[in-house]
């Protein structure tokens, strides 16, 4: 297709001007260009390299996908020179287990620094290398595997500490910088934004406390225990994990909020261990469907599925079906939120809960009790009740003579009840907030109220609510 010269001339002229025009920033000096360099130079010395070694022991390699050896090494001629490489690869070897990570100095006067528990748990000799290449042996003051926080101490002068921010003030979209000192090669710096806050659900263990900051600033292997900072140069988090399919960064990294790490540090310095308490409730997330069944306008909160006997919650009058929406003035958006807030308190600390009970809001005061394991409830929803066989509690059940209710004898696989999670040996103790003792009572309540049906179920040592539609 041919274009008239009259039309082409303005286009060619515009292209000439674009090519000839100098860059808009050409007049800027190096000092005027935006850069994170001054910030990194100021707070960088507070980020250190950590190397951990342990006693020699026989180490078996992790299970891996079978690797096909290159045909080059299968040829008899080359085996004569290189030996049986497959045998060498499979042979167990003796080596010193070691880990490499990063840490952040938070107290220059006393030499305290924070890192991840998973960095220091593999061995017994910890070496810290500063940015000025000085090397020190570190003492493990204490560690908390449930938050993955560890506190170290080094005896050194002229240290630089990083100021601590209030991580509760972080918002999605805030700019952050991740700094690590991996492999002893020097510091690495990456930048990004806060992608999310209050992240949980990572498969880090059933007892872990999770309230992660998610960021797209690259956090790679060796940067664990490093610093996540804001643009003021303040520490907002301790880098701890990445979500990855192949070991590399894909823009989903996680950091422990510094407020949580600071609480752990304070307990380790005060008590030498974590004195984690409980209030004595088993809880689950409040869903919109369950909220509707409970008759509350709240859409978020921690739903009390069970109140454990002889606990502060029982003494304070908390009841099954209460929805906790605030704790000490801070909002509670779900079960993990309440568990994290309680778990960071010391035994004996005062707690004021704002709860919703049958549509009314009230406050309850109590004190954190002795440490104990309180499992989270697991909520499910089912569209209707069918394919379920009910009966009295079997004498062989651990719940026999402990609770009163109706046992689920059988749940037909593939039915809505099965898909929702109702299982044999569950014990139904309430239907639509009414106590039930016999299968006929369940039928009577269902006939009277119809769907939806709210069940309170005991399962082993736990409890949960199920909503049936």
Describe this structure in words.
By secondary structure, this protein is α+β, with helices and mostly antiparallel strands. The chain has four domains: 44-53 and 97-153, Thrombin, subunit H; 167-271, Trypsin-like serine proteases (Thrombin, subunit H, Beta Barrel), CATH 2.40.10.10; 281-367, Pdz3 Domain (Roll), CATH 2.30.42; 380-468, Pdz3 Domain (Roll). The chain has twelve helices and 27 strands. Strands 21, 22, 23, 24, 25, 26 and 27 form a seven-stranded mixed β-sheet that branches. Strands 1-4-5-8-7-6 form a six-stranded antiparallel beta barrel. A hairpin with a 2-residue loop joins strand 24 and strand 25 (434-435). The longest helix is centred in the first third of the chain and has 16 residues, at 5-20. Mean pLDDT is 77; it is low at 1-21, 56-95 and 371-384.
Count of the separate structural domains = 4
| CA(first)-CA(last) distance | 66 Å
Mean pLDDT across the residues is: 77
List low-pLDDT spans. 1-21, 56-95, 371-384
Shape: elongated
**What share of residues are in beta strands?**
25-35%
CATH architecture label name of the largest domain = Beta Barrel
What is the CATH first-level class name of the largest domain? Mainly Beta
For the biggest sheet, the summary is:
7 strands, mixed
Fraction of residues in H or I helices: 10-25%
Radius of gyration, in Å, reads: 29 Å
**CATH topology-level fold name of the largest domain:** Thrombin, subunit H
Per DSSP E runs of 2 or more residues, the count of β-strands stands at 27
According to CATH, the homologous superfamily of the largest domain is Trypsin-like serine proteases
Task: Please work out how many helical segments DSSP would assign.
Answer: 12
Q: What structural class do the secondary elements suggest?
A: alpha+beta
